[in-house]
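Batch 3, record 17
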Amino acid sequence: MDKLIVCRCEEVDLDTLVEHARQYDCSARELKLRTRAGMGYCGGRTCRTSIDALLCHLTGSAAGDELPLKVQPPVRPVSLSTLGGRLES
Amino acid sequence: MLDAVIVGAGPAGLAAAIACREWGLQVVVVDEFMKPGGRLLGQLHQEPDGRWWNGIQETAALLDRAVELGADIRCGVSVYHVEKAESGFRIYTSEETLLTANLLLATGAAETPLPLPGWTLPGVMSIGAAQVMTNVHRVRAGHKGIIAGINVLSAAIARELQLAGTELHGLVLPALHPLTAAAGHPRKVMESLLRIAHLAPSFWIRAGSRFARAGWVRSLALRFYPRSGVKLWGLPVHLRKALVRINGVDQVESVTLSDTTVDGQPVPGSEQTVDVDFVCIAGGLYPLAELAAVMGCPFKYVEELGGHVPLHNEQMETPLAGMYVAGNITGIESAKVARAQGTVAGLSIAARALGGSEQIKLQRQLAEALHHVNETREQATIQFHPNIAAGRMKMAEAYQEHVIRQ
Amino acid sequence: MSNMRIVDHPILGKLEERPAVSFTFDGRPCEGVAGDTIASALLAGGIRMLRVQEVTGTPRGLYCNIGHCCECRVTVDGKPGVRACLAEIQPGMIVESGKPLPQRKELAPHA
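Prediction for the assembled complex:
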C-alpha cells in the first residue's frame, strides 16, 4: 500500500509506527516520544484514536478504560498574549 | 462566582441552560463556533411520519427559549483549560477566565478518522465537515464527491448532499488496513447495516421505492454484495468497492477504487480511477471529552457508546462534585436524546445549587426528565448503535462500582 | 464560482440575501457573505488549499471543520494560528495561507 499518513501534523506514516511498535514493544506514550506521532500542532487530537487502534491491533488486546495518550492543556490553540495575561493575574 | 458554566451550545448545552434559567441560576454558555446548535445545526432528515427534522429550526426553538429566559450565550469562545478552584471550577477561555460552582461539559462528539493514502490533500474532509458546509454555510463541498465509509451517518449526510444538488459518485468502503479493520470489512459493515435496518425500517424505506425493509435486507444478503452496488436514493452503495488512494497535486483530483472480496481484500486488476474534487471520510463518532480528561475524570471504554466515555450516572453527574456531562460526550445518540439529557443535567445542577425548599419540586421535575430521556431513546428512529441501552447500563454499573470503591 | 453557493434548497428554502464581505487571501481579493467563515468563503470561491505542512510542504486544507484538527489554520491580520473554520470573515480582513518553515540543510533523523 502507498504511504499511509497516520499523524497528519507530523506526517508519521503507518509503516513507521508499526516498525517502532514492533521493535520497541511500545506503549502509546513511547510510540509518541519515538516517532513524534501525537506531538504535533493538534496535540494528538486527530491521531489519538488511530494510535490506540493500531496498538490494540498489534498487541491483540482490547481497548483499556484509561485514555492511552494523556490529554494536556491547553486543549485548544491559545495565543501567547492570552496566556501571558493569565500568568500576571 | 457563577452558578454554572456550560461548555457547548448544542442541543444538550442549550436544554441545560434553559433548565438552569427556569430555576433562576446564573449561567454562562460558551461555544467555539460562531453560532449555537453544535451538530444539530446541520442536521436535515425525514422522520417516519414524513416530517422533516430541520436542525436549523430545532436550534432556533431552543435558542429562542434560552434567550427569552436570559441565558448568557457566548459564541466564538474557546475553552482551553479547566481546573478545580476554591469551591468550584476555573474555566480558561480565549476571552476571559470564568469562576463557577458547577460545570457542564456538553462538548459533543468528534469523528474517527480513517487514514487513507492521499487523505491529507485539500478536498478530503470528514463527512461532518461536508454537512456543516452544505447545510450551515450553504456552500457545496465540491462539484462531485465520493464517500468512504458506509454507516447511518454517512448515508444520512449523503442524502443531505444530494438534496443540496451536490453530485456524488456513491458510497464505498475505505481500503482495508490495520486502522480500518471494521469500516473496511464488507461483511462487518453489512452486519452493522442489517442491525440498524432492523431498528429503523422507516429510514431505509424512505431510501427508495424499491426497498422496503425486507427488500433492503434481502437485496444485500441474497444478492451477495452486487458488483454494481445497492441503490440508496439512487446513490450506489458499494460494499465490495474500496477507496485505495486519493490522487491530486494541490488538491483532490481523483480517487482510485478497487473491487474487493467479501473479506475486503483487493481484487487484482480491478482498479479504476474516478474523477472527483472532494472526498468525505466517514469513520463514525466518538465522545469529545478532552476537558473531562484534563479534570482527571475517570473514563470507561464502552463500545456501544462510541469509545472512551467519562464516568457518569443517570443524573448526568460525574464522580467530580459539581462537574456534569450531557449529550454526545456521554455516548453517541440522537440530538433528541442529547436535548433530553441536557434538561436532566440542568435540573441536577439546580438541585445542587438551590436550597432545601425547592427540592421536592426539583426532584419531581428531575424524575420526569429522566423518564423523558428513556422514552426518547425508545422512540428513536435512527440508532448509531443497536445496543445503546446495554451501553448505558454498562456505564451506570461502572459509575456505581467507582462510587463504592471511593 | 457562484454555483458553489446553494442558493435554493428544496427543504431549507431560498438563501436569504446577505451583504457581501470583501477580504484578501494571499493578496488576492476575495468575497464572501456576512456569516461566512474564512473556510466557507474560500470554498465558495473554489479555494481549498489553506496552508502547507510546515516541514514537508504538502498542501493542506480544512478537514474536520469544527476547530478540532487545526489543519485549516491561517494568519489573519498578522495573527497566526487562526482556525479558518471558526473565524467569521470581516470586511478588509487580510488572510494569509500558512507557509513552510525555512528549509534546514539537514533534519535530525527520527529515533
